[in-house]
Amino acid sequence: MRIISFLCVLIPLISFSQSQWKLAKDDKGIKIWVRNFENSPYKEYKATTYVDTSMQGVIKELLEAPSYTKNCEEGVSHLVKVNSANEYIFYVRNNFPWPIKNRDVVSKLSLKQIADDKIKLCISAAPKEIPLVKSTLRIQELSGHWLLEENEKGIKITQQLYINPEGTLPPFITNALLVTGPFKTFRTLKETLENIDS
């Protein structure tokens, strides 16, 4: 679940009516696309890669996380609770230098078996699951998913995400992380999963 924490820490700062996907990066077996999102000034992104591992190995890596506490470590995703066998609540907080206000995200992941070789983890905001934190903006709009598909190349991992970062942030900050954040996340995910099976 540290992989998802990367996303929550780095992607709350993405900026820009929904349109066609545009390939923004293709490197080290990772592809990242971006597009406008409905009537929002912020864009969404989609990242994909292939990993030679098992479906359960990917799910375990995405869902494992330390337990949530009021003083949990900044920048790391924490498991708040499991509402059912297939619904997980996570929390991550990220501190920023003044004058940018700190942000935190409470997200719900719902695991769905679409087919024998396809699993989807739907992501949505769950801002009311835990109390607000002082001097911290709580993300209210978050939507996306992880899609895991098994084929002859291994496991195809797709992550699509839209986040409204709340407040006001300079465009140069949001634009800078639009591709670099997801790419770093997927590179780490790919390396971690491949090392587990090596």
Folded structure, characterized:
22% of the residues lie in helices and 42% in strands. The chain is an alpha+beta fold. The chain has a single domain (2-196), classed as Alpha-D-Glucose-1,6-Bisphosphate, Chain A, domain 4 (2-Layer Sandwich). Strands 1, 2, 3, 4, 5, 6, 7, 8, 9 and 10 form a ten-stranded mixed beta sheet that branches. It is globular and about 50 Å long.
Draw up the topology in text.
Elements: H1 2-10, E1 22-27, E2 30-36, E3 43-51, H2 55-63, E4 78-84, E5 87-94, E6 102-115, E7 118-125, E8 136-138, E9 141-151, E10 154-164, H3 171-196
Parallel strand pairs: 6-8
Antiparallel strand pairs: 1-2, 2-3, 3-10, 4-5, 5-6, 6-7, 7-9, 9-10
Helix pairs in contact: 1-3
Domain START: 8-195
Pfam families: START
GO molecular function: lipid binding
Concise account of the structure shown:
It is built from 3 helices and 10 strands. With 198 residues, the chain is of the alpha+beta class. It is globular, with a radius of gyration of 16 Å.
